Amino acid sequence: MSKPISNQHISIPLPIYLAPTIYLASRSPRRVELLKQIGLTCETLPADIDETQLPDESPERYVTRLAQQKAEACLQRLTDAQRLHPVLAADTTVVLAGKVLGKPEDDDDARSMLNALSGSLHYVHTAVALAFNHTIEVTLSTTAVEMMVLSAAQIEAYIATGEPHDKAGSYGIQGLAGAWIKRIEGSYTGVMGLPIYETATLLRKHGISI
Questions:
Q1: Between the CA of residue 109 and those of 20, 37, 105, 159, what are the distances in Å?
Q2: Local confidence band at 20 (pLDDT 50, 70, 90 cut-offs)
Q3: pLDDT tens, 160-203?
Q4: Does 69 score more than 50 pLDDT?
Q5: Would you please indicate which residues are annotated as catalytic (active-site) residues?
Q6: How far apart, in whole angstroms, are the C-alpha atoms of residue 33 and residue 46?
Q7: 159-188 b/e (C-beta count within 10 Å ≥ 16 → b)
């Protein structure tokens, strides 16, 4: 004769949600920190691609294309099992009067860019690409940035810090140059290199909880 089932409460542990590993097609420590800010860890797999702007290519199209190509290049380095995880790529460019200002080649290039940006209203475009579930989707963040008028002494002192060397437009809003920015219209983190809201929205759209 079987024993009756007792009314004893059985506790079943709930599954713990673990954020998926994200492969970041970038070597930027700023992007890594911004992902950590929203609770995501990542493995960096920098994508080295040709970043030459095409003839008659608009800045918006240029930055969007590079973000997508970085994601594609990163995918090529992954195994089939690794491709089950999201791949995130981003590209940022500074645009003044329709001209793209990339990372400076040297101090003279940085000096030229900073003199041009002094007292300007310019735009920062950051495109974010997500490769996941056999699709690649790209979103674009555009922010207007107004910079104060800079003296020659300020520019020289800033160049001497080395901060402009790896930054589009030769400045970083999150660093010393933040004191020069009078106002922005758009995404502060987009100017840093990874717009958090747009990135989180893209991830949520593809089923990744943020």
A1: 40, 33, 6, 10
A2: low
A3: 999 999 999 999 999 999 999 999 999 999 999 999 999 999 99
A4: yes
A5: 91
A6: 16
A7: beeebbeebbbbbbbeeebeebeeebebbe
Strand 87-96 to strand 121-132: parallel, antiparallel, or no bridges (unpaired)? Answer: antiparallel
pTM comes to 0.87
- In angstroms, the CA 7 to CA 105 distance is 74
Q: Are 126 and 193 in contact (CB under 8 A)?
A: yes
**Residue pLDDT, tens place only, 72-131:** 999 999 999 999 999 999 999 999 999 999 999 999 999 999 999 999 999 999 999 999
What residue ranges define each of the domains in the chain, with the CATH number in brackets?
22-205 (3.90.950.10)
